[in-house]
Amino acid sequence: AYVVTDGCIRCKYMDCVSVCPVDCFYAGENMLVIHPDECIDCGVCEPECPAAAIVPDTDPGAGAWAALNAEYAAKWPNITEKGAPPEDADAWNGRDGKAALFSP
Ligand code: SF4
Ligand code: F3S
């Protein structure tokens, strides 16, 4: 499965939602996650993310985010349409240390 990593936090652009053929994104307060059992590994979302936050779970950068995606996909609501990103999304794109800002 593909995994949303810390790059998504406070960016939450949601371009990924628009392209996923199986609607397997789930939305938290400041990031999205992918349901690992629903993702069909098509890879379409990866290049669409302006924050480069999406990686395959085989990527070293996935790390602990794979487990976090699985955990929160079971808790957060499904999202099937792109909404409005945070107004300051661009200011957070590429910033370090966003993992600490994860909002469960
Ligand atoms: Fe959806 Fe494909 Fe991305 Fe998986 S890899 S989350 S199925 S767009
Ligand atoms: Fe997040 Fe990128 Fe989607 S910032 S909401 S993973 S387009």
Secondary-structure element pattern, one letter each = EHEEEHH
Mean pLDDT: 98
Q: Count of DSSP helices?
A: 3
State Rg. 12 Å
Which assembly state applies to the chains in this document? single chain
Stretches with pLDDT under 50, minimum 5 residues: none
Q: Percent of residues in helical segments?
A: 10-25%
Q: How many extended strands?
A: 4
Structural class: alpha+beta
Beta-strand proportion: 5-15%
For the largest beta-sheet, the strand count, sense and barrel status come to: 2 strands, antiparallel
What is the rounded distance between the termini? 21 Å
Bound molecules: iron/sulfur cluster, FE3-S4 cluster
What is the strand arrangement across the widest sheet?
1-4
Shape: globular
